[in-house]
């Protein structure tokens, strides 16, 4: 039997863990991801949490999923469909089977497929595999619950505690399937449960039991798999989520600028992990305050910025609504503040655990008066570090609040990240007052090149000043209602943002002769890039331009977009970037591909839609409304 099992080498593979929200699928997925990143694989993950705080056990609405794509080289998305599906109960199989490839392997816990479980999952019969059209030969049907209890019978653990280890059995089985070294898993568990050695030992024992089960019975599969690592740039790597990368980017910027970091925040899904992470780093000079509400979180950060700290506040879409008044205070006071918006499904409370790109126009225009703010959109979990760092640099050097857009997909998702050398990061020079301005300082005296005002720290002799929400005279800093002064100040604030230097828009793929240019912003980068590469592999001429800097737009934006006969703007909203580009660029009328499902794009769906657009004839002349160019 040992000779019949073949080890196949793959370039990439997708594994999807699913079960009840209390089944530990996120932990199992995170451990498998960390182990894969440790051995040098490229990784991309997508944790998919249920919207219910605690749905009834075994219910369809309570299913929690974690998908990880591992590859020999760099991977750009968590994958459309999985090669291996772990379904810990009947509801998980019912809800997540759509994510499985037709020939994928399915691992189930048969102890969670009783009659009551099937009823909760709304199966009509006991033949749940036949009802879903699943070939039984693809299914590894294992009594996981019973085997875990048998494995831990001599530990003295209660039944509830033993059941919490079921996820580790599934993890062990997956590790066998992909030839993973359990030493790395054990090291992770020992570190995680360092203060609870008995729990660590129980989980390690169960992981080994799952691995041994696969090894001994060969788990009904004809072969196991190995994903070898391509040569990577030497350095220290870690598996990092977007929220953690954002926190690290803020800390690195504070260190580079020689300032204390202050975060004023109010807990909100899916941004709370930024507050949690920064709260761990008091030794790094980080101050965190959990405020009583959203506007207080932003207002406390404005106070910290006035006092000379690198100030930030973190939230999601509903919090941006509530913070908007305070954000405008930071704008008229021209104080350096970073506002992190981890976008989620809306409107209103919407879908707190789901991901969208629907806050773009809100952060650009959702405040009273002329209220220009720079907007940066991170493109991946690891890019959250660079985006946060650059947001801080712009805020401190140009004396302005800056919005950093991430979203639930990249905030909770993770990738392998090479730790940077902080000395190699771009220098940050806060725009402080000069010695020559002492006793002559007025708060809105500006740098003639950048139009940034000078930052004076309260209590510094010779730089006494007052800021506030009322319009000020540009020369004296006194309250002013003069029409000409107000017009001048509005134009100065707008021009200051417009002058901020940002990198040119880069075109990937068939830059010179593409028949179609795909345009996106932020977190859709990986999916759009993968779609472009699939289309090019089919012989199509396709290019991609992904916006990271949305305000100000790159200087070459109009020139780039004018090069191509067909341009499609793809975004997870109903056309917000497309609308902005129409406003800013004369005669620009792109095609649109829009989805607001609370889920990332599916690459195969993008390829199908763009291929139809490529084959469609160019219209002889534009007519009708812009709705005629929205891809259905």
TrEMBL record:
Q: Which GO terms describe its biological process?
A: response to oxidative stress
Origin species: Prevotella histicola F0411
Residues forming the Pyruvate flavodoxin/ferredoxin oxidoreductase pyrimidine binding domain are 257-453
- A Pfam family that the UniProt record links to this protein: POR_N
Q: Kindly list the GO molecular function terms attached to this UniProt entry.
A: oxidoreductase activity, acting on the aldehyde or oxo group of donors
The Pyruvate:ferredoxin oxidoreductase core domain extends over 514-579
Matching entries from InterPro entries are given as: 2-oxoacid/accept_OxRdtase_asu, PFOR_II, Pyruvate:ferred/Flavod_OxRd, Pyrv/ketoisovalerate_OxRed_cat, Pyrv_Fd/Flavodoxin_OxRdtase_N, Pyrv_flavodox_OxRed_cen, THDP-binding, Transketo_C/PFOR_II
Protein name stated in the entry: 2-oxoacid:acceptor oxidoreductase, alpha subunit
Looking at the record, the residues that make up the Pyruvate/ketoisovalerate oxidoreductase catalytic domain are 22-212
Annotated keywords: Oxidoreductase
């Amino acid at each position: 039997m040992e000779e019949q099992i073949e080890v196949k080498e793959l370039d990439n593979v997708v594994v999807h863990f699913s079960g009840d929200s209390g089944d530990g699928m996120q932990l199992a997925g995170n451990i498998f991801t960390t182990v894969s990143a440790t051995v040098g694989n490229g990784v991309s993950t997508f944790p998919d949490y249920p919207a219910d705080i605690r749905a009834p056990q075994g219910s369809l609405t309570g299913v929690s999923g974690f998908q990880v794509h591992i590859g020999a080289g760099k991977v750009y998305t968590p994958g459309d469909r999985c090669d291996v599906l772990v379904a810990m109960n009947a509801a998980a199989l019912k809800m997540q089977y759509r994510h499985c490839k037709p020939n994928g392997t399915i691992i189930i816990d048969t102890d969670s497929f009783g009659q009551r479980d099937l009823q909760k999952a709304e199966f009509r019969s006991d033949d749940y595999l036949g009802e879903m059209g699943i070939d039984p030969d693809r299914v590894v049907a294992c009594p996981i619950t019973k085997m875990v209890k048998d494995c831990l019978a001599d530990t003295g653990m209660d039944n509830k505690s033993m059941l919490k280890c079921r996820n580790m059995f599934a993890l062990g089985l997956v590790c066998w399937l992909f030839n993973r070294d359990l030493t790395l898993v054990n090291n992770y568990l020992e570190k995680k449960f360092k203060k609870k050695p008995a729990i660590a030992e129980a989980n390690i024992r169960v992981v080994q039991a799952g691995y041994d089960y696969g090894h001994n019975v060969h788990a009904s599969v004809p072969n196991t798999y190995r994903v070898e690592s391509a040569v990577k740039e030497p350095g220290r790597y870690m598996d990092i989520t977007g929220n953690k990368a954002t926190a690290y980017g803020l800390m690195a910027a504070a260190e580079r600028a020689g300032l204390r970091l202050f975060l004023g925040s109010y807990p909100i899904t899916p941004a709370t992990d930024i507050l949690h992470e920064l709260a761990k780093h008091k030794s790094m000079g980080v101050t965190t305050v959990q405020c009583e509400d959203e506007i207080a979180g932003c207002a406390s950060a404005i106070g910290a910025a006035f006092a000379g700290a690198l100030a930030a506040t973190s939230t999601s879409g509903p919090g941006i609504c509530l913070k908007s008044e305070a954000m405008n205070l930071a704008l008229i006071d021209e104080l350096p503040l970073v506002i992190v918006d981890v976008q989620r499904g809306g409107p209103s409370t919407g879908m707190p655990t789901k991901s969208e790109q629907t806050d773009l126009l809100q952060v650009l225009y959702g405040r009273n008066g002329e209220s220009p703010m720079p907007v940066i959109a991170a493109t991946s979990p690891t890019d959250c570090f660079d985006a946060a760092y650059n947001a801080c640099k712009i805020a401190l050097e140009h004396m302005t609040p800056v919005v950093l857009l991430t979203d639930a997909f990249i905030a909770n998702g993770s990738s392998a990240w090479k730790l940077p050398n902080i000395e190699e990061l771009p220098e940050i020079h806060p725009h402080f007052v000069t010695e020559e301005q002492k006793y002559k300082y007025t708060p809105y005296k500006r740098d003639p090149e950048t139009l940034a005002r000078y930052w004076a720290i309260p209590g510094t002799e010779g730089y006494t000043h007052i800021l506030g929400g009322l319009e000020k005279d540009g020369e004296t800093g006194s309250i002013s209602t003069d029409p000409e002064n107000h017009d001048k100040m509005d134009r100065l604030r707008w021009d200051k943002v417009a002058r901020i230097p940002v990198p040119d828009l880069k075109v990937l793929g068939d830059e010179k002769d593409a028949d179609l240019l795909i345009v996106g912003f932020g977190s859709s980068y990986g999916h759009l890039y993968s779609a472009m590469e699939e289309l090019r592999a089919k012989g199509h001429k396709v290019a991609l331009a992904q916006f990271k800097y949305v305000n100000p737009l790159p200087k070459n934006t109009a020139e780039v977009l004018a090069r191509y006969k067909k341009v499609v703007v793809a975004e997870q909203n109903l056309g917000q970037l497309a609308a902005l580009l129409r406003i800013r660029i004369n005669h620009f009328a792109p095609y649109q591909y829009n989805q607001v499902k609370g889920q990332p794009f599916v690459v195969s769906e993008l390829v199908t839609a763009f291929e139809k657009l490529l084959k469609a004839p160019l219209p002889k002349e534009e007519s009708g409304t812009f709705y005629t160019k929205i891809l259905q």
